[in-house]
Amino acid sequence: MSAPKDGLCRVSENRTVIDTTLDLHFDAGGKDPDRFSSTIRSYHCHLWRKPLPCGAMFDLEDIYPNGYPLHQSDRGPMLMSSDTIIRTFRNRRGMSSVIGHIPESDRTAFSRLGYTIGGMTIFPMSQVDGKFTINQARGINRRIGDRSDLTLECIRRHYADGGASPLATVLARYSDFFELFRDFRGYVDFFLLQDLVTADYSEIRFFAPFLGFHESLLPASADDYIAYRSLTIDFVNGRNKRIVETSNQN
User: pTM for the complete prediction?
Assistant: First the structure.
């Protein structure tokens, strides 16, 4: 069942019905869907309002018109924001010679898939000491470039030993958030990111060969981009499937 085109989620027998095929631009009025789509907010509240590994509830409240859910816990309030986690590099400067070889229909389909709920997550949105949030840092850091696989590797290292990564400092600022999930496995399972890690949770399934954060994160050729695109699509499709299964259980 699809979400209705008025921007509201259908509720059947008190259950939100999530359409994982829906391009969530549709009810944002031409603005940023992460902030202005009421459907994204409803989906996030439905999916992530559940028990944490410690047993406490991760409560999310839609506080529109601010556009962000609010998580209340014994640690105090945490303002959360939606974030698109899939990077197509479609508008990245210097990538036209690589992506130009990809049919426009394929480029459009990839972009639309990234704006299904499987391509979305949430992070704390309030700045700490006026410094970058996780969303901001992962977006501007040239060694991350908004890639979800590289971001998750930084989070894995944070849980492992606080090890060095391009996001180590910003993740440490939000340690209270990450402590809610106890460990890396808890974080991955909570946000249904299992398709981005190996079976034992020890490594990331990167969308492109990972030789270290000092290497370029950009696909260098059309073949490299096609491989990157294929693995990214597999991840989003896998996560969307998990979202459907989880939604049906709630």
Answer: 0.90
